[in-house]
Specification:
This protein is α/β, with parallel strands linked by helices. The chain is 54% helix and 7% strand. The chain has 16 helices and 5 strands. α7 links the parallel β3 and β4. It is elongated and about 80 Å long. The relative contact order is 0.10. The protein binds zinc ion. Zinc ion binds next to α3.
Length: 376
C-alpha cells in the first residue's frame, strides 16, 4: 500500500513521512481509528516506507525489490500478526498468513467481520493467545533480512488475551533497535493501559463525506455522482460500510437489468410493464445510473464477444450473464442497443416521463435483441 493510494488523511500522512525522514521512528505506535477510516492501509504504507530502498519525499518508490515484495505483503522484514479462532490445532498466525494477505490485498480497509467470514466461523471468537505472543518474539529474534528495519504489525491488538498482552508488554518494555511495532485497531479501552503507555498514539479520524465520495468513485467508476454522495452521507465516514452499500446497489441494478432484458427478449409485455412501474419509482439518479450500468455491461459483453476476456470486468453472476448475453449481440444490433441506452439516458437527464420512456425502451430493446446476424 502506497500513501498516495490512501484517500484522505493528508496532514497525517505528511506527518508520518516527515517523522521517518527526520529519523523519528517510535519503537511502538498504535494506529487507532474507527472502522473504515484507513488505519490498516496507513500502517501498511508506513511499513512500506520504512522498508523501501529508495523512498521519495512523499511516498515509497513503488519500484524497488522491497516495494515489489510489499505489493504482495510478503516482505521478510514485515511480520504480520492478527487474531484467529484459537483451538487445539490452531494457535499461531502462520498457517493463516496466506489468507490474511489475500484478503487485505483485496480490501485493505479490512475489519474483523470480513476476516471472520474468510475463516468461516461466524459464531466463533477471534482471539490472540500466548502462542501468538510467542510467535511475535520468535519472529523478532530473526535477523533483519535487509539489514534495516524490522516491522511487527499487530492487527486488532484489542483481541489479545491478558496472558498474551502481558507477554507483549515484556517485549515492548525492552525495545530492540531498528524494530518498529505498529499496532492497528479500533478500541484502545480494551488494551492493557501498560501497553498503551508504551505506544505512541496515531489517531486516524473517520473520513469526511467528500473523501468517501472520492474513494467510491475510484472503486466504482460507474456509480453516479449523486448516488455516491447519498451513500457517503449515510456511511458516516466508514469506507467499508460505503463500499458494502455500493456493492448492494450494483447488485440490485444487475438483477434488475438482467431480468428486464430477459423479459424484453421474450417479449413479455405484462412483465415489461411491471418493470416500468418499478423503474418509475427508482428516482432520477438511479434511473440514469441504470442506463450507465447497462452501457457498461454491454461493453463487457462486446469485449467478451471479441475474444478479449482479459479485459472483461465482471464477477460471479454478472460474468455468467456477460457470457450468455454476448451471444445475442451482433453487427446489426450492437450499435442500436448502445444508442437506445444513450438516448434514454439523455431523455432522463431532460426529465422525460420515466414510465413512458421505459416502456418504449423495452419495446425497442426487444426488437434489437431478437435481431439476428445478417445472412450473407
Ligand atoms: Zn521502494
Amino acid at each position: 500500500m502506497l500513501f498516495s493510494r490512501i484517500i484522505g488523511h493528508a496532514a497525517l500522512k505528511a506527518k508520518l513521512i516527515g517523522n521517518i525522514r527526520e529519523g523519528r521512528v517510535p519503537h511502538a505506535q498504535f494506529f487507532l481509528g474507527p472502522r473504515g477510516s484507513g488505519t490498516l492501509p496507513l500502517a501498511l504504507a508506513y511499513a512500506r516506507y520504512l522498508l523501501c530502498q529508495q523512498p521519495g519525499a512523499a511516498d515509497s518508490c513503488g519500484a524497488c525489490p522491497s516495494c515489489a515484495m510489499l505489493d504482495k505483503l510478503a516482505h521478510p522484514d514485515l511480520h504480520l500478526v492478527f487474531p484467529i479462532f484459537l483451538s487445539e490445532k490452531s494457535k499461531t498466525c502462520e498457517p493463516f498468513l496466506a489468507d490474511w494477505r489475500e484478503l487485505v490485498g483485496k480490501e485493505p480497509y479490512l475489519d474483523a467481520e470480513r476476516w471472520r467470514e474468510k475463516l468461516e466461523g461466524e459464531n466463533k471468537q477471534l482471539r490472540m493467545g500466548v502462542d501468538i505472543a510467542a510467535e511475535i518474539t520468535r519472529k523478532l529474534s530473526l535477523k533483519a533480512y535487509q539489514g534495516g528495519w524490522k516491522v511487527m504489525l499487530i492487527w486488532l491488538p484489542e483481541l489479545m488475551d491478558t496472558a498474551a498482552a502481558n507477554k507483549l508488554l515484556k517485549v515492548l518494555e525492552e525495545p530492540e533497535p531498528m524494530t518498529a511495532f505498529l499496532l492497528v485497531g479500533h478500541a484502545n479501552d480494551q488494551i492493557l493501559p501498560t501497553i498503551l503507555s508504551r505506544t505512541q498514539l496515531v489517531k486516524v479520524p473517520a473520513l469526511n463525506p467528500g473523501e468517501v465520495v472520492e474513494a467510491l468513485q475510484l472503486r466504482y467508476p460507474d456509480l453516479g455522482a449523486e448516488e455516491a454522495r447519498a451513500i457517503a452521507a449515510r456511511s458516516e465516514g466508514d469506507l467499508l460500510e460505503a463500499a458494502a452499500m455500493a456493492d448492494k446497489s450494483e447488485e440490485e441494478l444487475f438483477v434488475f437489468f438482467r431480468d428486464w432484458l430477459r423479459a424484453c427478449y421474450a417479449n413479455k409485455v405484462p412483465d415489461t410493464v411491471e418493470f416500468g412501474e418499478y423503474f418509475a419509482k427508482m428516482g432520477r439518479e438511479r434511473q440514469k445510473g441504470l442506463m450507465l450500468y447497462a452501457l457498461y455491461l454491454i461493453r463487457q459483453c462486446l469485449l467478451h464477444g471479441q475474444q478479449v476476456p482479459q479485459l472483461v470486468r465482471a464477477f460471479g453472476e454478472e460474468m455468467d450473464f456477460v457470457k450468455k448475453f454476448s451471444a445475442l449481440l451482433n453487427e446489426r444490433n450492437t450499435e442500436g442497443i448502445r444508442r437506445e441506452l444513450e438516448t434514454a439516458h439523455g431523455h432522463l437527464e431532460r426529465n422525460a416521463n420515466p414510465k413512458v420512456l421505459f416502456l418504449d425502451l423495452s419495446y425497442r430493446m426487444g426488437g434489437w435483441l431478437r435481431m439476428k446476424e445478417a445472412v450473407a
